């Protein structure tokens, strides 16, 4: 993958470090320590740069492997602190994220425009009772059914809790871009855990010599090997950990 060209460590190590950071409540120094235990000397500042650079690339590459999104969207916004100030985070359950300094019609419209550009149009949209949503939906999704009944949005609100649990050890975000990046990456690893992607590995350790000669479909251009399409999808996360353990 061209995005990894010029880096000292192989893609498997970089992706593993990024995945650890997005999935677990760890700091960059925690990741540095975990890699050091595996004889990989990486400064925590480098881990930060990996997360900021590669998370958007991995999110984009994974779109090719994602199951087709459902026809129902659950939309909500929550608050996160960026440089000591409360910032609004628009989220669609399991899919789209937009960080914004304002909670207004322009921000909501920008969120929907970006989300609609990435997938199918929903037939039903569930939101809270914020007054901006009816106007935006009438403009962009006039054919969709709008649901704003109480407790209908519990699904996305529960997911807010998981995201905030991940953000808590970070002691606050410094930039709006970081809020966008980490939130989108967190959604990616959660969706991988939920089985929303068809992910595979280059070869299986259980294959016989005869089976290993079978040809597999080529990966889409620009996609890292752990996101490649395979005849028999497997849990790529265990594969990544195994690859990182073998690096010396």
Helix-strand blueprint:
Elements: H1 11-23, H2 28-37, H3 44-62, E1 72-82, E2 85-92, E3 97-100, H4 105-116, E4 124-126, H5 132-140, E5 145-147, H6 154-167, H7 176-193, H8 209-212, H9 236-245
Parallel strand pairs: 1-4, 4-5
Antiparallel strand pairs: 1-2, 2-3
Describe the structure.
By secondary structure, the chain is an alpha/beta fold. It is built from nine helices and five strands; from the N terminus they run H-H-H-E-E-E-H-E-H-E-H-H-H-H. Strands 3-2-1-4-5 form a five-stranded mixed β-sheet, with helices on both faces.
Question: What is this structure, in a nutshell?
Answer:
With 248 residues, the protein is α/β, with parallel strands linked by helices.
């Amino acid at each position: 993958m061209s995005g990894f060209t010029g880096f000292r460590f192989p893609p498997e190590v970089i992706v593993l470090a990024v995945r650890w950071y997005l999935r677990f409540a760890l700091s960059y120094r925690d990741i540095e320590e975990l890699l050091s235990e595996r004889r990989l000397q990486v400064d925590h500042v480098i881990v930060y740069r990996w997360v900021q650079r590669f998370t958007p690339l991995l999110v984009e590459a994974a779109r090719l492997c994602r199951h087709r999104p459902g026809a129902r969207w659950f939309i909500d916004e929550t608050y996160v602190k960026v440089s000591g100030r409360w910032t609004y985070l628009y989220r669609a359950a399991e899919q789209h994220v937009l960080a914004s300094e304002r909670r207004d019609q322009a921000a909501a419209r920008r969120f929907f425009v970006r989300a609609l550009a990435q997938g199918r149009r929903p037939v039903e949209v569930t939101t809270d009772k914020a007054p901006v949503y009816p106007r935006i939906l009438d403009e962009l999704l006039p054919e969709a059914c709008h649901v704003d009944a109480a407790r209908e949005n519990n699904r996305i609100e529960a997911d807010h809790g998981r995201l905030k649990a991940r953000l808590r050890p970070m002691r606050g975000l410094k930039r709006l871009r970081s809020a966008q990046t980490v939130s989108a990456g967190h959604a990616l690893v959660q969706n991988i855990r939920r089985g929303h992607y068809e992910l595979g590995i280059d070869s299986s350790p259980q294959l016989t010599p005869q089976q290993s000669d079978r040809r597999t479909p080529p990966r889409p251009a620009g996609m890292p090997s752990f996101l490649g399409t395979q005849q028999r999808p497997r849990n790529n996360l265990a594969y990544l950990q195994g690859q990182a353990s073998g690096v010396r």
